[in-house]
Known about the structure:
The chain is of the alpha/beta class. 30% of the residues lie in helices and 17% in strands. It has three domains: 10-346, Aldolase class I (TIM Barrel), CATH 3.20.20.70; 376-469 and 629-670, 3-Layer(aba) Sandwich (Rossmann fold), CATH 3.40.50; 472-519 and 554-624, 3-Layer(bba) Sandwich (FAD/NAD(P)-binding domain), CATH 3.50.50.60.
Amino acid sequence: MSFPHLLEPLDLGFTQLKNRVLMGSMHTGLEEEKGGFEKLAAFYKERAIGGVGLIVTGGISPNLRGRLAPHACQLSFPWQVNKHKIVTQAVHEADGKICMQILHAGRYGYHPFSQAPSKIKSPITPFTPSAMSSRQVKGTIKDYATSAALAKKAGYDGVEVMGSEGYLINQFICARTNKRTDEWGGAYQNRVRFPLAIVNAIREKVGKDFIIIFRLSMLDLVDNGSTWDEVVTLAKSLEQAGVSIINTGIGWHEARVPTIATSVPRGAFAWVTEKLKSEVKLPLVATNRINTPEIAEHILASGQADMVSMARPFLADAEFVNKAAANESQLINTCIGCNQACLDHTFSLKRATCLVNPRACYETELNFTPAQIKKRIAVMGAGPAGMAFSIYAASRGHKVVVFEAKSEVGGQFNLARKIPGKEEFDETIRYFTEQMKRHHVELRLDTRLDASVVRDEQFDEVVIAAGVVPRRIDLPGFDNERVVTYQQVLSGEVTVGEHVALIGAGGIGFDMAHFLGEDESSTLHPEKWLKQWGIDKSYADRGGLIAPELDSPHRKIYLLQRKTSKMGKGLGKTTGWIHRSVLKHHQVEMKTGVTYESFDEQGLHISMDGEASVLAVDNVILCAGQESNRTLVDEMKSTGLPVHLIGGVDVAAELDAKRAIRQGAELATQL
């Protein structure tokens, strides 16, 4: 498939973008590291070389109080310009264009000096902001303009003004967070004075030949958010104020609706960008869960938007655009929307990277240079760890042979992709399979590796990536055929009844509850998904919310854990709440502090707080973790060759593809 609309240049009058792809803003954590701007320059340069039309940086604060965290990056003084020049020069050397995002956190600031329109605490931060005085409001507007002027001096092609996601500007716009009674609050025309004053001040400082993108919250997804008429009114005013591009913002960070997680349908929010198309003449950018050139091309070709914004897809693959231009979309390492190594890291104040691409944000540190000594390497297991190692090692010139006991590659990903909302895992298996072919990795399916093969075929080293096996529980009645493992259920080896108990409430337990509670994945049916989460495409009420439409549960599910701590405490920092919400949709009964006693014809016998009870269930499904599959490890070591363990066979904690893939990549650099 060709992508003519995606690759079409966009003329902004004073400058031209080489295609319709905007690399959306992402905070990487490099901004605050020692030597981080050199690393950031390498990160952005690779994406510019990869063909991106316009890059937008992570959020940079215009002043001290606007920082996201105490040591977060800001651009307020001339002496800060030089480090930004390192980034802009690198991008321009690669024939790219880059804008700096100006972001004031407002009440989302994770520090005691945060400010907001009104003294109203955010539900997602521990600090209550102080209300800005009128003088401070005017000073902040000036700070935005100063920051933009410094960005121009640093070589940026423009700035993006972050006016969505519930940050400061959004907080001024909405009566939800703006309770002021002065000229900056009250009526809507007063509340939008703040963003318009910022844009006017910036344009006056930087002149006409400078890109100004405004990230407009088109769908707040919170109570007492903006109405559609208010969104349109502000968009038209921004156009008159001299904005170059309007980028779509979806949802506040505190919204109880998922907007970018893997369970969100692809392109699920392009309709709201399309809704604005007839109201303004400015180029509009569609965003959120656009992760393939095919969906991007569809959005552009159907007239829903003039550009598409993709952020995490460029963590996954710097060459995304070039591969699309070469009609090689099958070679794109597709973002699966997991958040595990990007947003989860960012909100934990760690450097961001990517589960499927461990080189992301490590471009100066993790590289696969040609090996000085080419080796013949046997790999046992074709799960995420084994596949990752094989392609990276083969790219260095090693001869790699992968032995997989099953008839297909993928390991635990083959189970994960069967969970509703995790269909994207198919893409990672596809990518790794294609890369193994391109790097001439020899794959032997339905074949177990043993010591005699290692000796006979004269391998130099052995890598064991044999994964994990479910942990069994030794209790009375647990040898019954109705007590099964999660692998048996997901593989279709067994079927279960209408009443089930899941033992273990980690990620596996939550996934199993979702799998058993949802007959058909709503992720594959966008209209159904929107209704399930209460998103109103007619936009009749503020924030675009309606009452969710939920299906009646067709199965009684108990989710049990021994610990008395909060259910799902170990789930992803940015996605755990989504999983808990889904289980509530399915009316899953969650019990903590459970002691398991036995299983018989009556059901599962348990006790809680010393009180015994019986759960009348047809099946018990074991989701209580896993153990390393160390079969043949000792045999491999008996060969006398170097033996390396990676992935689940090394550490069998919660299933961790992020660690497994990174381990495979790092080992590949060492052999």
